[in-house]
Design brief:
Layout lengths: L6 H16 L8 E5 L6 E5 L13 E5 L17 H10 L5 E5 L2 H7 L21 E2 L18 H10 L18 E4 L3 E6 L2 H29 L24 H11 L4 H12 L11
Helix pairs in contact: 1-5, 1-7, 2-4
Length: 285
């Protein structure tokens, strides 16, 4: 049950949904969840309309992390892919926010041989090559293959992709190795500890993807041939695909700097949706 005690928190949650739609991160099918700070075994998620149109407590329900079922017998079952959220929150106790969207430019990297990598200082958290979750590896015979994460088993497989080098040995780790995973031919999922930082990560993941794509296109035009991404770094600070990416140290240090204060862009983004009549947030005081 959603109570008045959560009004401030959920007002910020609604604002975050609006910001993500404004920036083209969430379309009509995207969704985001928020762990209940008063009971970590449950999480909030909207269950009606599209992210842009979420406006009140009536649009939000509470679910169990254990099975993604509503906490009340008559509660809404929510979206098919609610298992994305429950399984990541279950797998990583330190994670409080899970975001799933279908931004076009990010989807393009999920079906390309060119890995999404940190190319700008605003997106240092991406680090090296971003993992790609290929759901086809996990389908059972006669299972619906619509690319949706519609079962706890598929949600758990996606959650594991956030720490792909641990071979299932980090069950007691609170946080994943990666903040963002691409989903082949589908979209992406991102997660984090704080709501505002997850919004920041999503917005700048898209910006990074656009900058990287533009640089690859310029390289292609300059050399009149396809740019093929290869592992490792080349001479002069450039990767073998001819693009300069952040070094591991740069990625680490830039994210350490940027994550200290995301209030500046958040304040701008919040104002943008406040003055746009499309977005209504009845919980704002």
């Amino acid at each position: 049950m959603v109570t008045a005690n959560h009004t401030h928190l959920l007002a910020t949650y609604i604002t975050a949904l609006h910001i993500l739609q404004f920036h083209g991160i969430l379309d009509g099918y995207g969704h985001m969840s928020l762990r209940n700070p008063e009971n970590h075994s449950t999480f909030f998620m909207f269950h009606t309309v599209s992210p842009a149109l979420v406006s009140s407590l009536a649009d939000i329900a509470l679910y169990h992390v254990s099975d993604a079922e509503p906490t009340t017998p008559d509660g809404p079952r929510g979206f098919i892919e609610r298992f994305i959220h429950s399984e990541i929150l279950k797998r990583y106790p330190g994670i409080n926010v899970v975001l799933h969207g279908h931004a076009d430019i990010l989807v393009s990297y999920s079906i390309s041989s060119v890995p999404l990598r940190a190319a700008i200082h605003m997106a240092g958290y991406l680090g090296g090559a971003t993992p790609i979750f290929d759901i086809t590896r996990y389908y059972l015979p006669n299972e619906t293959q619509d690319l949706l994460v519609r079962t706890p088993r598929l949600g758990a497989a996606l959650a594991d992709e956030f720490s792909p080098n641990n071979n299932g040995e980090c069950e007691d780790h609170d946080l994943p190795d990666h903040d963002l995973v691409l989903m082949q031919s589908h979209g992406f999922t991102s997660c984090g500890v704080e709501l505002e930082k997850v919004v920041y990560q999503a917005v700048y993941a898209k910006t990074n993807a656009l900058v990287q794509a533009e640089a690859l296109q310029r390289r292609h035009d300059a050399y009149n041939g396809p740019a093929v991404a290869l592992e490792g770094e080349g001479d002069g600070g450039k990767d073998k695909d001819g693009i300069v990416y952040l070094t591991p140290r740069q990625a680490q240090d830039t994210w350490a700097t940027m994550r200290r204060d995301v209030s500046r862009p958040w304040g701008l983004w919040k104002r943008q949706v406040q003055v746009d009549p499309l977005y209504v947030n009845e919980l704002e005081s």
